[in-house]
């Protein structure tokens, strides 16, 4: 059945993938898991339009998806559409009686709301539009607070630019019955500014929920974050009922926080969420998991340190003491309270370790969800995503962070189990990847690409006056 | 640190062959309630090394787990309760994990095991 799926005009690249993930979580396609959903666009609409049609098997699934989603404003059973109100009326009249009838019964209550995209409709105009629907034989009572059935009249503007989207050739009006809507109240509840314990790279609440949705976090599952920091990503997974576990190399962040009621535990307590079942200090480069342990996590969600706002560290720093050339050894009498130094940890190595860990520790069908940085300048040939033979990449969603770089949320599914041969194949693949990326991703390069003054651009202006074309439209990402 | 974590960890010092299970040195044990979730327990059961869990729970002062366990016992609510308590509710607040081979001490403070290796151990 086709549903009208109306999105918030935010994080455009994340919208369909979120719905697809949730469809899998709620059992759409039954045994044909991983089968992509079918999408259609309304007449004359641009792919970045908030209006899409999606094919789902039942109201229940559509409702579950909409209710848990962060970016779906509502899912509607479409009763009619048109480019003007006459067409709309004809279309609604032609919608099968037996589909309309159950929702128009006497004794039921209903509400009609009017929404528009790209313009504001005054209260009076809204009322007029609702009055104009009198040809629909509503027999129930109006109830604005808690109606049995909600209906929505949605309109797009037909003039000029539309929140930065390409102009809409023709306006479109939709009328439908609301099947489910998103709970955006979550976001103000969990927003970072109200959180007690924050770090410089804490993940914002909206994104943490999106990541948890991509990871299919739900009750009974175990979700791990190897770069847990203040726990901001796990908060999202815990909200959806998953058990959480986190590791970090910085013990001050995971153990001490900023005081007894300002630490990772308090961030969960603050929202009444169950605290992580484990927090530990461990190094992603040398994880302390026992050798036989595998396939224990249902999902791994993280934001690896990519060296722009925070750099990675791993164990095994070499303290160079005066006059000593050999590798540093800790004197026996100082072992107890020794604080080991750490070495810097490049993104390439970090991503390799992450993929290797995930290949071993995720259950079959488990998901690895993580951010990966991308440079936006020129036609960057280095923008290739890391790969692993155990994993299939199912989505990559870009969020623009500045004119220089963006981050891409990668969602990978584990499709083959980890074996020695696979580990070897992965190593070779990684070597190749490393070669290609060394230039950009080795220490400092991404950082300098992000922070150094732009030479190319000035040359472009001064030279042939041909400013390099922005490959992505301006309205995407945080500009929305 | 809960015993689920203990069951997952080993000493990964360079050269150590048998780093699991880590011995537990108890200074302070607290009980922290966790919501009972049978599905989660059933999921975890096949991944747990049973004997180390039984030994660890004894060290922490809980001796109610059977020596041997197999998947058929997961139908018993009583068994699940005990398993749940041992795996998730016993919490080592202060103490240490000791490498069985080298006796290296990994401290546990405020419930967080510090598994980071020294420079000459990697």
UniProtKB/TrEMBL annotation, chain A:
Its main location: cytoplasm. Residues 194-318 form the Ribosomal RNA large subunit methyltransferase K/L-like methyltransferase domain. InterPro entries: DNA_methylase_N6_adenine_CS, RlmKL-like_Mtase, SAM-dependent_MTases_sf, TRMT11, TRMT11_N. Keywords: Cytoplasm, Methyltransferase, RNA-binding, S-adenosyl-L-methionine, Transferase, tRNA processing, tRNA-binding. Residues 2-184 form the tRNA (guanine(10)-N(2))-methyltransferase TRMT11 N-terminal domain. Its EC number is 2.1.1.214. The keyword Methyltransferase applies. It is an enzyme of class 2 (transferase). One of its GO terms (molecular function) is tRNA (guanine(10)-N2)-methyltransferase activity. The keyword Thylakoid does not apply. It is found in: Cytoplasm. One of its GO terms (biological process) is methylation. One of its GO terms (cellular component) is tRNA methyltransferase complex. Belongs to the class I-like SAM-binding methyltransferase superfamily. TRM11 methyltransferase family. This is tRNA (guanine(10)-N(2))-methyltransferase. The gene is LOC103489693.
UniProtKB/TrEMBL annotation, chain B:
One of its GO terms (biological process) is tRNA methylation. It holds the Pfam family Trm112p. InterPro entries: Trm112, Trm112-like. CDD domains: Trm112-like. Transmembrane segments: none annotated. SUPFAM superfamilies: Trm112p-like (SSF158997). GO terms for molecular function: protein heterodimerization activity. Interacts with TRM9. Belongs to the TRM112 family. This is Multifunctional methyltransferase subunit TRM112-like protein At1g22270. It comes from Cucumis melo (Muskmelon). The gene is LOC103488061.
């Amino acid at each position: 059945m086709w549903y009208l799926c109306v999105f918030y005009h935010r994080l455009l690249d994340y919208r369909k993938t979120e719905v697809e993930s949730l469809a899998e979580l709620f059992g759409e396609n039954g045994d044909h898991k991983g089968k992509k959903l079918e999408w259609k666009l309304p007449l004359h609409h641009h792919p970045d339009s908030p209006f899409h049609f999606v094919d789902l098997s039942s109201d229940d699934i559509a409702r579950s998806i909409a209710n848990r989603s962060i970016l779906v404003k509502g899912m509607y059973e479409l009763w009619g559409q048109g480019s003007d109100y006459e067409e709309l009326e004809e279309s609604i009249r032609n919608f099968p009686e037996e589909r309309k009838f159950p929702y128009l019964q006497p004794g039921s209550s209903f509400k009609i709301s009017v929404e528009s995209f790209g313009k504001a409709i005054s209260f009076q105009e809204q009322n007029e539009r609702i009055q104009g629907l009198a040809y629909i034989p509503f027999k129930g009572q109006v109830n604005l607070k808690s109606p049995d059935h909600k209906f929505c009249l949605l309109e797009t503007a037909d003039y000029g630019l539309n929140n930065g989207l390409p102009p809409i050739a023709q306006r479109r009006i939709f009328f439908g019955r609301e099947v489910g809507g998103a709970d955006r109240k979550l976001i103000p509840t969990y927003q970072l500014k109200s959180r007690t314990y924050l770090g410089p790279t804490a993940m914002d609440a909206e994104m943490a929920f999106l990541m948890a949705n991509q990871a299919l976090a739900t009750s009974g599952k175990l979700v791990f974050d190897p770069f847990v920091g203040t726990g901001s990503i796990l908060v999202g997974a815990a909200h959806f009922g998953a058990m959480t576990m986190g590791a970090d190399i910085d013990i001050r962040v995971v153990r001490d926080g900023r005081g007894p009621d300002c630490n990772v535990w308090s961030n969960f307590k603050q929202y009444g969420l169950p605290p992580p079942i484990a927090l530990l200090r461990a190094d992603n480069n040398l994880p302390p998991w026992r050798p036989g342990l595998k396939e224990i996590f249902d999902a791994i969600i993280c934001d690896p340190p990519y060296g722009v706002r925070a750099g990675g560290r791993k164990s095994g720093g070499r303290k160079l003491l005066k006059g000593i050339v050999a590798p540093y050894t800790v004197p026996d009498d100082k072992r107890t309270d020794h604080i080991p130094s750490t070495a810097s940890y490049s993104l390439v190595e970090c991503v390799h370790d992450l993929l290797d860990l995930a290949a071993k520790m995720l259950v079959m069908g488990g998901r690895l969800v993580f951010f990966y940085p991308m440079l936006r300048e020129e036609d960057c040939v280095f923008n290739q995503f890391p790969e692993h033979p155990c994993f299939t990449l199912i989505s990559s969603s870009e969020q623009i962070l500045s004119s220089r770089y963006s981050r891409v949320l990668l969602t990978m599914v584990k499709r083959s189990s980890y074996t020695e041969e696979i580990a070897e194949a992965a190593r070779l693949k990684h070597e190749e990847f490393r070669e290609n990326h060394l230039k950009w991703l080795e220490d400092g390069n991404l950082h300098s690409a992000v922070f150094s003054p732009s030479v190319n651009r000035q040359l472009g202006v001064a030279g042939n006056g041909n400013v390099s074309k922005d490959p992505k439209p301006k309205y995407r990402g945080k500009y929305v | 640190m809960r015993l689920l974590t203990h069951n997952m960890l080993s000493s990964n010092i360079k050269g150590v062959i048998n780093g699991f299970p880590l011995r537990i040195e108890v200074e302070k044990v607290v009980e922290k309630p966790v919501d009972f979730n049978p599905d989660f327990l059933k999921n975890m059961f096949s991944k747990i090394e049973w004997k180390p869990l039984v030994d660890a729970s004894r060290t922490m002062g809980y001796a109610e787990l059977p020596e041997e366990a197999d998947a058929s016992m997961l139908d018993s609510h009583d068994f699940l309760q005990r398993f749940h308590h041992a795996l998730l509710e016993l919490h080592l607040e202060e103490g240490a994990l000791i490498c069985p081979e080298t006796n290296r001490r990994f401290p546990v403070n405020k419930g967080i095991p510090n598994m980071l290796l020294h420079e000459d151990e990697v």
